[in-house]
Each structure stands twice: as structure tokens, then as C-alpha cells.
């Protein structure tokens, strides 16, 4: 990362917003998106139990929707935006991950994390709203 005093050949400060931090979030979102597609495909073709398949499809849907938000929401910068992204990423992991693990790996105890993940997803959306309302950027 460049120090604050660094300038390019035209004397402009670097745009940190579009740098490695956003690239990291894109990689994280891409992995969640990939996981959502894999889980959805497995639910459609590899799970015989209708209830289990529907639950995994729901988990895949939520992973895909929130992965898209992580990729597409590029207007948020600063501490609040970071908290929003962390809440969404952790929410995806807890909500979609625990449901998928419960029904694919048959590890029922991990299913208790789904409500926590749901609350984190809601918190992530609320933080996006707060960030957008109070953001100084145009």
C-alpha cells in the first residue's frame, strides 16, 4: 500500500478505493458466489430428500444474492462500509454455510448458526443504508 504522500506522474494521489481492498472483497464475493452455484447444483441434482434440497437451494440463493451485493456495491468506503461488508460476508458464511453443512454433511449442530447469520445479513444491509445516508462522497 502506498503512503499518503505518494503522487503519480501527474501529481495526483492514488485512488485507494479501487485498489487491493476492493480486489480482496471481489475475491471473497467470487468464492461465495462459486459456493452458491455449487450448493444450488448439488441441491438440484444430488439431494434426494425434498426438504433438504429446498433448504440448500435457499442457502445457495442467499449466498448468491449477497455475493452479488459484495461485488456490486462499490460506493461505500470507510469504516462503516467495511463493517457492512464484514457483516454480509460473515452472514453468508454463517447462514448459507451452516444450512449447507447441516443438510449436506449431516452436521445438525452447526445449523444453530443460521439465525446468527441471518441477523448479520440484516445488519449488513442496515449498515449499507447508514453508510449511504451519512457518506460524504457524492
How much helical structure, as a percent, in the residues?
A: 55-70%
Characterize the biggest β-sheet.
none
Compute the number of structural domains. 1
Radius of gyration: 18 Å
Please give the number of β-strands.
Answer: 0
Termini gap: 25 Å
Into which percentage range does the β-strand content fall? Answer: under 5%
Shape: elongated
- Given helix and strand content, the structural type is mainly alpha
Q: What average pLDDT do the residues reach?
A: 86
Number of helices: 4
H and E order: HHHH
Q: Which residues sit in consecutive blocks of at least 5 with pLDDT less than 50?
A: 13-17
Structure in words:
- 70% of the residues lie in helices and 0% in strands.
- It has helices at residues 20-45, 50-72, 79-104, 114-134.
- Helix 1 (20-45) packs antiparallel against helix 2, helix 2 (50-72) runs antiparallel to helix 3 (79-104) and helix 3 (79-104) packs antiparallel against helix 4 (114-134).
- It is elongated, with a radius of gyration of 18 Å.
- The two termini are 25 Å apart.
Set out the fold topology.
Blueprint: H1 20-45, H2 50-72, H3 79-104, H4 114-134
What is the structure about, briefly put?
This protein has 138 residues and is an all-alpha fold. The protein contains 4 helices and no strands.
Amino acid at each position: 500500500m502506498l503512503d499518503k504522500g505518494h503522487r503519480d506522474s501527474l501529481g495526483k494521489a492514488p485512488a485507494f478505493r479501487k485498489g487491493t481492498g476492493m480486489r480482496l472483497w471481489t475475491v471473497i464475493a467470487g468464492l461465495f458466489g462459486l459456493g452458491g452455484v455449487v450448493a444450488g447444483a448439488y441441491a438440484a441434482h444430488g439431494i434426494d430428500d425434498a426438504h433438504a434440497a429446498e433448504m440448500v437451494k435457499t442457502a445457495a440463493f442467499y449466498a448468491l444474492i449477497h455475493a452479488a451485493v459484495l461485488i456490486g456495491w462499490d460506493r461505500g468506503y470507510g469504516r462503516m462500509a467495511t463493517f457492512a461488508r464484514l457483516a454480509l460476508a460473515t452472514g453468508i458464511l454463517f447462514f448459507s454455510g451452516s444450512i449447507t453443512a447441516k443438510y449436506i454433511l449431516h452436521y445438525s449442530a452447526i445449523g444453530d448458526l443460521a439465525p446468527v447469520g441471518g441477523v448479520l445479513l440484516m445488519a449488513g444491509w442496515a449498515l449499507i443504508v447508514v453508510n449511504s445516508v451519512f457518506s460524504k462522497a457524492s
